[in-house]
């Protein structure tokens, strides 16, 4: 266990203060589970190389510090079938002593919502202890951005857009549906391996519209914007406490899709298309990544993990260290996490039917098998 | 000039950062850890970096970089051990090294082959770093010139290497490559997710087969089985000839080949999206084409070792360009590397377009840490090579179970799935049959590796080109026929024509005699034809609006024509024709002490036991029984061997945080790790 002891030593330099705060908290609660000498396995249903790995690797040492007994937290990767393999595995796990947790992502949520035949798991059985949000920004080449009249996107309707798409049923359906609602003619080039490859396609001039999640936008597109080769078009926005879409706090100067839609003729912020878009936006972005305890977890275990993530959030340096790695987004615990889970995994039958039908008509993707 | 004025101080401060004793200490630590991981086939940078990740949080950036770069840099050096000594491709970077390195080891020249390889690796790493120091400043616009049609052409150029490696019957090589490509298309299509040769009822296949499993199955298993059947040591000479000095001399005599292959390595590494899996084949092809006497390739030609080994370390340097300048990982280990950089310090290093502007000194530090790690790693490897080369004089029956254990562990990857073992043995059997009937295994592997990029880039290029043509005919033509594409087309045509003319004399896998039996080669051909025909039919049944059917149908169609020609040739020609090559009838195989099927049954036995008892219990039984009854050693020796093997396996699994696949037993009884 020498590795992890060293990890702790490294991390402890950073967190001494927060750890002390935390110890007081759990003792005050009086009903935590003790994980001394245990190993917590954090299952990530993706490979070592993805965005979820980055997110889990950021949290793992902090969580180890914050849990009572300072257990070793190891991230275990279980890729396959676009994350449904790992999720199905987690569904089969029974709660024992709180040493198995699971990290889901938007790519786990979407197949669940769309009724993918491989999904054998149910979010309703699981217990959420953390929900991490993110946002997304669409951008254009400067000459095309100039065709927009303020917030009115109808000037872009005569352009043949090319977009590097990761897959019709992936998170990419949020931007593609948004563009379609604005009346844009966007052709998806499929088989792009990650959003980074999509951005490269944009930089090479092959694609002329693209979107990135917030942290990738900050590191990958902001330099292009500064160099004058890209112009932000819109963000997906963020949710306020009442569930309304407002400006993304990370990008307060960039208008939201909702604002563009309101200003563009033919795009409506009500009706079935809007409801479906909003439902899938909420499932994909404001609660993109969540941490779960398995079916049947004890209240004590849930309380312990919730307290631990709260202690991580309460670290004096959390804002600073998380900004660079996760972006400025809510890291929700407790009731907020449960609310996020509910909005991210419950989509009205109408919204689902709309998307399923739209995927069938636009891409020929059949989800009714 | 401005650029250079900025670059020089950054280069200076990079060296200032690197040349601190503590940084060098971390670098050496990383190198040693990388060597320990990389020496085991199938475990590479991904496994090693995952091991380091828990340390990275908040670590001083330069120290963390030294540790990680040290580890990543030496994997393509240390994997040479497995490639040369055992004929097992240690990683995708050293597949081509097997072709000539292993025959050299068989001739008792393991130490010479190793030191030639290491000298080339070192040199490649240094050339790569020197090239990058200048190139990285101007790389961005150049890399952006490589659009989808260019990427597709490079993929096709890689595929054209099949021409050189096709073997004596060129059409057989082409069909082998086609088969490899079809195996590469198994699973969900990238375009609209339609399934090829798979079903949601068997979820394993929907993700397709992994390169590590196919690489180990196609090369490692046939070699292990073949050596086991002959029941001798790898080296046919009892004394190891050719010391390490000879190897270094060999390298020096071929220094210009080494320079050229290093440059090839850097350039292919620089281009995002292709990764390193084809670069060693391109370098091997280049080595073959520039050698006057081609008769020694496949039998132990040292140029066949120097070429790929010069390129694969240089490629790691080249791979830094897409990684650091674009934030797009050139390989799996680079993807973890990017993630780990974000954990360093307070996260101030941001990989991406701003890297050069904000962190040029860090960029240069990484480039030269990589070069320095190559030097350190090579020195350690050369020092160790003489001793490790002695492994080739041990009776192979004592090594085989251990090797089999390692490659099974590598095959599990992070999946921990029994199906990985099934796939390994299945592909291994295919590899055995390809080897026996002289179907080119390198051609199969090149087809497999390039299948996904060929399909994706072809589909994307067609789609984008259609859109460009809609704008105007001229724009469409400009898009497809850029100067880079035209140059690549010329090189490819040249290489194919030259390759096919020379292929008959290049026996990358040694000479195989034809025999008096027509039936066995015919059955093999019919089995291959049947699979290709079914894959074609399967793809054809995908709805016609989906792009996922086009590529497998095209490849299947071309391969079927090849099969038809081969069938006709088999019907017309006498049994002494080269098309009937069969290793079982002549040479080593025919005189082997053990039969093919009993040897294979040992490994099938391990598979069945794993399904019943879980991997560790099954492995224990397998190791003991194999040692006691097949290798006929004493019970005490077999027991110690088994205990050591199990302890080693558990140690590795614990360190890398892996579980073993459970069997039926574990459904009924809960056992503690690692049994459960």
- Walk across the major sheet of chain A and give the strand order: 2-1-3-12-4-13
Please outline the major beta sheet of chain A. Answer: 6 strands, mixed
Q: Beta-strand level of the residues of chain B, as a percent range?
A: under 5%
What oligomeric state do these chains adopt? heterodimer
Termini separation of chain B (Å)? 64 Å
Describe the overall structure.
The complex is a heterodimer of chains A (369) and B (676). Chain A has 369 residues and is of the alpha/beta class. Chain A folds into two domains: 2-133 and 287-345, 3-Layer(aba) Sandwich (D-Maltodextrin-Binding Protein, domain 2), CATH 3.40.190.150; 136-283, Periplasmic binding protein-like II (D-Maltodextrin-Binding Protein, domain 2), CATH 3.40.190.10. In chain A, 46% of the residues lie in helices and 16% in strands. Chain A contains 14 helices and 13 strands. Chain A has a six-stranded mixed sheet with strand order 2-1-3-12-4-13, with helices on both faces. The longest helix of chain A has 28 residues, at 2-29. Chain A is globular and about 65 Å long. By secondary structure, chain B is an all-alpha fold. Chain B has helices at residues 2-18, 21-38, 45-56, 61-78, 80-86, 95-106, 110-144, 148-160, 162-165, 170-184, 203-206, 211-230, 244-253, 255-270, 279-289, 303-318, 320-326, 332-343, 355-358, 360-389, 396-412, 418-436, 441-471, 473-480, 483-503, 519-540, 550-572, 587-590, 596-613, 615-630, 635-656, 665-668; strands at 187-188, 195-196. Chain B has three domains: 2-394 and 440-471 and 478-493, no CATH class; 512-590; 597-668, no CATH class. The mean pLDDT of chain B is 87. The chains are: A alpha/beta (369), B mainly alpha (676). Chains A and B meet through helix 1, helix 2, strand 2, helix 7 and helix 8 of A and helix 3, helix 18 and helix 23 of B.
């Amino acid at each position: 266990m020498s590795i992890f002891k060293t990890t702790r030593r490294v991390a402890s330099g950073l967190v001494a203060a927060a750890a002390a705060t935390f110890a007081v908290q759990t003792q005050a609660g009086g009903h935590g589970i003790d994980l001394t000498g245990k190993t917590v396995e954090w299952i990530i249903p993706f490979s070592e190389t993805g965005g979820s790995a980055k997110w889990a690797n950021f949290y793992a040492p902090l969580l180890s510090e914050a849990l009572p007994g300072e257990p070793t937290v190891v991230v275990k990767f279980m890729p396959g079938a676009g994350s449904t393999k790992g999720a199905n595995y987690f569904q089969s796990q029974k709660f024992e002593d709180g040493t198995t947790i699971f990290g889901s992502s938007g790519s786990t949520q979407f197949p669940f919502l769309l009724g993918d035949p491989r999904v054998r798991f149910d979010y309703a059985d699981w217990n959420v202890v953390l929900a991490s949000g993110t946002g997304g920004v669409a951008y254009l080449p400067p000459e095309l951005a100039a065709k927009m009249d303020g917030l009115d996107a109808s000037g872009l309707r005569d352009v043949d857009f090319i977009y590097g798409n990761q897959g019709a049923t992936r998170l990419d359906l949020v931007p593609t549906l948004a563009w379609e609602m604005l009346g844009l003619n966007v052709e998806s080039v499929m088989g792009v391996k990650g959003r980074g490859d999509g951005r490269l396609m944009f930089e090479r001039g092959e694609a002329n519209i693209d979107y990135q999640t917030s942290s990738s936008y900050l590191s990958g597109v902001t330099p292009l914007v500064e160099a004058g080769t890209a112009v932000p078009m819109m963000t997906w926005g963020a949710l306020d406490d009442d569930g309304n879409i407002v400006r993304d706090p990370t990008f307060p100067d960039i208008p939201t899709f909702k604002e563009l839609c309101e200003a563009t003729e033919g795009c409506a912020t009500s009706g079935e298309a809007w409801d479906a878009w909003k439902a899938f936006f909420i499932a994909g972005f404001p609660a993109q990544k969540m941490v779960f305890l398995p079916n049947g977890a004890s209240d004590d275990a849930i309380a312990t993990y919730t307290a631990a993530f709260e202690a991580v959030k309460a670290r004096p340096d959390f804002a600073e260290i998380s900004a660079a790695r996760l972006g400025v987004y809510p890291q929700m615990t407790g009731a907020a996490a449960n609310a996020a889970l509910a909005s991210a995994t419950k989509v009205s039958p109408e919204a689902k039917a709309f998307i399923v039908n739209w995927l069938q008509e636009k891409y020929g993707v059949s989800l009714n098998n | 000039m401005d650029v250079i004025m900025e670059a020089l101080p950054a280069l200076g401060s990079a060296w200032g950062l690197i040349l601190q004793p503590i940084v060098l200490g971390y670098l050496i630590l990383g190198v040693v850890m990388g060597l320990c991981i990389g020496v085991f086939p199938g475990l590479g940078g991904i496994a090693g970096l995952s091991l380091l990740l828990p340390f990275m949080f908040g670590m001083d950036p330069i120290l963390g970089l030294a540790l990680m770069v040290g580890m990543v840099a030496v994997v393509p050096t240390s994997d040479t051990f497995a490639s040369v000594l055992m004929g097992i491709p240690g990683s995708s970077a050293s597949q081509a090294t097997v072709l000539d390195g292993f025959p050299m080891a068989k001739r008792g020249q393991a130490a010479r082959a190793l030191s030639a390889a290491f000298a080339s690796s070192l040199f490649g790493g240094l050339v790569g770093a020197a090239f990058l120091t200048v190139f990285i400043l101007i790389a961005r616009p150049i890399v952006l010139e490589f659009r989808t049609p260019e990427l597709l052409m490079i993929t096709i150029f890689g595929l054209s290497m099949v021409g050189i490696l096709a073997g004596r019957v060129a059409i057989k090589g082409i069909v082998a490559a086609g088969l490899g490509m079809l195996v590469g298309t198994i699973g969900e299509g990238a375009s609209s997710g339609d399934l090829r040769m798979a079903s949601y009822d068997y979820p394993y296949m929907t993700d397709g087969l992994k390169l590590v499993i196919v690489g180990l199955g196609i090369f490692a298993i046939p070699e292990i089985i073949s050596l086991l059947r002959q029941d001798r040591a790898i080296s046919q000479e009892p004394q190891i000839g050719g010391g390490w000095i000879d190897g270094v001399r060999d390298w020096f005599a071929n220094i210009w080949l080494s320079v050229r292959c290093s440059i090839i390595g850097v350039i292919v590494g620089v281009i995002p999206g292709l990764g390193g899996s084809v670069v060693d084949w391109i370098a091997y092809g280049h080595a073959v084409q520039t050698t006057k006497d081609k008769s020694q390739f496949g039998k132990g030609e040292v140029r066949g070792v120097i070429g790929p080994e010069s390129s694969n370390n240089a490629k790691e340097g080249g791979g830094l360009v897409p990684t650091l300048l674009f934030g797009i990982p050139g390989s799996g280990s680079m993807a973890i590397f990017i993630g780990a950089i974000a954990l360093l310090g307070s996260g101030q290093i941001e990989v991406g377009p701003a890297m050069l502007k904000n962190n040029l000194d860090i960029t240069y530090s990484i480039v030269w840490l990589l070069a320095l790690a190559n030097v350190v790693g090579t020195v350690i490897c050369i020092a160790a090579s003489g001793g490790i080369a002695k492994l080739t004089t041990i009776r192979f029956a004592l090594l085989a179970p251990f090797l089999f254990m390692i490659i099974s562990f590598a095959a599990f990857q992070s999946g921990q799935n029994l199906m990985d073992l099934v796939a390994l043995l299945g592909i291994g059997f295919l590899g055995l049959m390809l080897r026996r009937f002289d179907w080119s295994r390198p051609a199969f592997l090149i087809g497999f590796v390039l299948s996904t990029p060929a399909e994706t880039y072809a589909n994307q290029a067609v789609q984008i080109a259609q859109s460009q043509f809609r704008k105007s005919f001229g724009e469409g033509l400009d898009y497809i026929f850029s100067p880079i594409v035209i140059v690549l087309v010329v090189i490819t045509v040249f290489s194919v024509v030259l390759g096919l003319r020379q292929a008959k004399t290049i026996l990358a896998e040694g000479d195989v005699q034809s025999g008096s039996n027509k039936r066995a080669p015919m059955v093999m051909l019919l089995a291959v034809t049947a699979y290709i025909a079914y894959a074609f039919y399967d793809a054809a049944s995908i709805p016609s609006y989906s792009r996922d059917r086009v590529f497998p149908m095209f490849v299947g169609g071309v391969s079927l024509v090849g099969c038809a020609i081969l069938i006709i040739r088999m019907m017309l020609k006498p049994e002494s024709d080269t098309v009937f090559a069969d290793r079982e009838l002549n040479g080593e195989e025919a005189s082997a002490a053990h039969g093919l099927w009993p040897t294979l049954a040992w490994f099938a036995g391990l598979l069945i036991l794993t399904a019943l008892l879980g991997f560790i219990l099954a492995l224990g039984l397998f190791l003991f029984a194999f040692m006691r009854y097949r290798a006929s050693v004493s019970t005490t020796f077999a027991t110690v061997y088994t205990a050591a093997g199990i302890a080693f396996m558990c140690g590795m699994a614990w360190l890398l945080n892996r579980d073993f696949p459970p069997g039926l037993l574990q459904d009924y009884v809960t056992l503690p790790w690692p049994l459960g």
